Amino acid sequence: MKQKCCSNKKLSTELIDLAKFLRIIGEENRLKILCLLKNGERCVCEILENLDLAQNLISSHLRVLLDFGLIEVRQEWKRNYYCINQKTFKKYNLLLNNFLKNYEK
Q1: Domain for residue 5, yes or no?
Q2: Percent residues over pLDDT 70 in the chain
Q3: 20-35: pLDDT as tens digits
Q4: What is the phi/psi pair of residue 83, to 5°?
Q5: The whole model's pTM is what?
Q6: 27 assigned to some structural domain
Q7: Cβ proximity of 18 and 52 under 8 Å
Q8: Residue 6 maps to a domain
Q9: Exposed, middle or buried: residue 99 (CB in 10 Å: 0-12, 13-18, 19+)?
């Protein structure tokens, strides 16, 4: 018998999206960046000060987070300021919570 989560097309799409989200936040340095951004926007130079990574690696991680929509960027003069995209986080928080509720007894 096929399980509900595998047979419902909408649920299957949500599971694919949730898996992508978990792969993206499952990388340690991206989690550290998100942790830094949870208290407000930061420029790359501030992120660089707090992580033991080269600037090009930080930029690469920021690009992944941006492309997925987990963060947003605001440009001021020559600096880019990054912040959490609350709308996207709420969406994936809801998806993850709904998924995990299926395993509660």
Answers
A1: no
A2: 89
A3: 999 999 999 999 999 9
A4: -145, 165
A5: 0.84
A6: yes
A7: no
A8: no
A9: middle
Place of tokens 């930029």: 59
Q: Give, in order, the Cα–Cα distances in Å from 97 to each of 1, 69, 85, 103.
A: 25, 19, 18, 10
Residue type, 17: D
Task: Kindly write down the DSSP assignment for every residue of the chain, as one continuous string.
Answer: ---HHHH-HHHHHHHHHHHHHHHHHTSHHHHHHHHHHTTS-EEHHHHHHHSSS-HHHHHHHHHHHHHHTSEEEEEETTEEEEEE-HHHHHHHHHHHHHHHHTT--
Question: Which residues constitute the domain of residue 51?
Answer: 11-101
Number of domains, the chain: 1
| Rounded Cα gap, residues 21 and 17, in angstroms | 6
Residue found under tokens 């929509």: 69
